[in-house]
Every structure is written in C-alpha cells, then in structure tokens.
Specification:
Layout: H1 10-30, H2 45-61, E1 67-71, H3 78-86, E2 91-97, H4 117-122, H5 130-150, E3 154-159, H6 161-165, E4 167-168, H7 177-180, E5 187-193, H8 196-205, E6 210-211, H9 216-229, E7 235-237, H10 238-243, H11 245-256, H12 264-267, H13 291-294, H14 297-301, H15 304-313
Parallel strand pairs: 1-3, 1-5, 2-3, 4-6, 5-7
Helix pairs in contact: 1-2, 9-15
Amino acid sequence: MSSSGASPPDDQVAAKLADALQDAVQLMRDAAYAPLLPGLDDVPKASLLQQCLDLCEQHRSRRPEPVRTLHHFACTGGTLISKCLAALPNVQLLSEVDPLSVTHLKPGRPSFAPTDMATLLRQSTRGTRQDLLIELFHRQISLVHEDALLQGQRLLIRDHAHSHFCKGPDVPQRPNFRALLPGGMTVRSVVTVRHPLESFAALAKNGWIHFEPGTLDDYCRRYMLFLDSYADVPVVRYEDFVRHPESTMQQLCEILDLRYEAQFTDLFSVFQISGDSGRTGGVISPRTSRPEVGRLGSEAQASQCFLQLVARLGYGLAPLDMAC
C-alpha cells in the first residue's frame, strides 16, 4: 500500500507475485526438492509474470456471488417452495427474516432472546433506533454472506413479508426487505403467489389475520401494495409449481442463478424450517380447495381489490380457474 492510500497497479502487484514465486522456487531448490520438480529452471520469469496477470484478470472478470431473496405472503405455499430450493446443491436457506419486524414482540412483556441482538436492543432499558437496527442487519448479513462464500454455499433468504404488510391497522411506510440489504450486494429475487381466496381462507383458519379491518378486500389491497413494492421482481405462481414442479423449479433456478437438480423432489421433506404450518408429506401435487373458500364467494364478488388482484396475477375468480 502506498503512503497516499491508493492501491498499486495490477502490473506492480503481479511483478511482486512473480518475484515471490521465484523466491519460492529457489527455496525449494535449495532444500533439495529440485529432483522432484523437473523443469523449474525452464520456466522464465516473464511466463510467471503473465500467469499472475492472467489471474488478476480472471479475478476482475469473475461475477460476484449474489444473495438470493424469496418473497411471499403467509399461507401461499412459500414454505414448500423454500424447502425445495433448500434441497438444491449447496443452498444455505435463512427462513423468515425481517430486521424491522415487531410481530414477535409483546408490549410490556419482554421475551427471552439471549442470541437475538436486535430484540435485546428493542427491549433494552433505553430502546433503540431503526437506523441502528438496519446497520446491525447489514453487518450480520454481510458476515453470513462472506462465510457462505468460503463454504461454497449459495445464500438464499426468505423474508417475512407478513410482518411488513399484514400487521396492524395499515402498512407502515418503510423499506421492503430487498431495500434493507447492504448496498453494493448483487441480489437475485423472486416473488411467489397463490390465489388470494386460498391464502386468505388459510390465514383465517390459522388465526393469522393480524390486520384491520381483516376483510378479504383489505387483504387484497395489502397484497397489491406488496406486489407494487416488488414490481421489478419476477413472479411465480404456487399453482404452477405444484402442477409442474420440475419445470417451475427450473424457472426458479434461472431467476435465482442456482444449479438445478431433479432430486429436489426426493429431498425437500427432510428440511425443517420456521413457518411450516401448511401441507405435510413428501409429495408435491395440487390439493383440494378448502371448504372455507366457497363461503367467500359473495365477499369476493363485492371486492374491487380482489377483482383487480386476480386479474393482475392471471387468476380467475375461482382458485382452479387460472389463465395459463
């Protein structure tokens, strides 16, 4: 490093590397390793220098390893898709991440969270700031990404969109999960969706309607705000995945820059992740529609947000009526 703090040119770095290699060769020769290393004397210094320059150029031209992000609402089949992606070679999945979530907090009742620094800060005697929570997340996710690179892993993060879009009387004005990632990171993302009648009915059955007024119309309004937030991200439908898992997984792999492996259908069921409240079993196939869905018919017909949402996603009014 020069005194000005500027990095030396690549040719200077390569020249130093070449000198170091020559020194290493001489050391091995002096240590009587020469008989084991035939041809050392025939390697000119210029050749070693060119190899170093080539290595520098390869490093410069190498594509940065991206962070992959997966976004979906609760009860839309996201857990199944996440587990299938986790079954691909070298994928390291973090499930249900949102550094600004307060869903797990209970006012006046601090929870035990000895390893969760963000929660500890929120529950501290003086509280904390949003910018500090974001900075903490930046450092943590950068460290996890760097370690994944060292381990030869592909980092995939499943966010917890429910915390942002389906909690409280209105959707808070804050960055979406993708915008919370450290600047300069290469990011590959995908949004997965499901027919809103199916997901809303499942949400109600699980007792997860955490928003007000808790109607189908309000749910669909929030769903469209979620889609608007990720307007530049490709969308894949859960129904397409369960009908054609292999071809849809290939599509997901192309979007996320992951290596496809057909054996994911045999492996996904061994993974246990948070948010796994839906289907069980190891077979990917369409399921029978919930009885509760049929009872939402009149409410759906009266909801402008529902009609706009199904048209936007290529669905018909009924879950099994889809545009292909």
